[in-house]
Amino acid sequence: MSAGEQPLPGTPKRFHTKVEVRWSDMDAFQHINHARMVTLLEEARIPWLFLDDRPTVKLRSGCVLADLHVQYKGQLRHEDSPLDVSMWVERLRAVDFTVAYEVRAADADPDSPAAVIASTQLAAFDIDTQRLRRLLPEERDYLSLWLAD
Hints:
It is a single chain. It contains 2 helices and 7 strands, in the order ββαβββββα. Strands 1, 2, 3, 4, 5, 6 and 7 form a 7-stranded antiparallel β-sheet that branches. It is an alpha+beta fold. The two termini are 20 Å apart.
């Protein structure tokens, strides 16, 4: 098993990564601003899906966000950095997939409730034709490794 991967009993295989909180991510109330949290979720997806050695690397040049849900269960602040983000695939279809997220403070117990629970529906997109495209077999195979039962 490679770094960042951790199976948890009774749950889907999850990809874990750390994301640094920037001072500019904070709002006037000293917690992470909503728009910045969405950006941090995006940054968390990069090492899992878009690096050169991933079977999903082609999505880097053609992937659109179709849906987004973010629930805040607790506050996260600059001092909670780096955030621990775990991700897995909630749903996998012909042209799209839904990523589930749990975000915790750096020092939080992995079994504690997540401060942020989110999901994003991502669709494969062909830039040249400006249309959705089917996920390639290697993309589907990789994503299915992370699929919730």
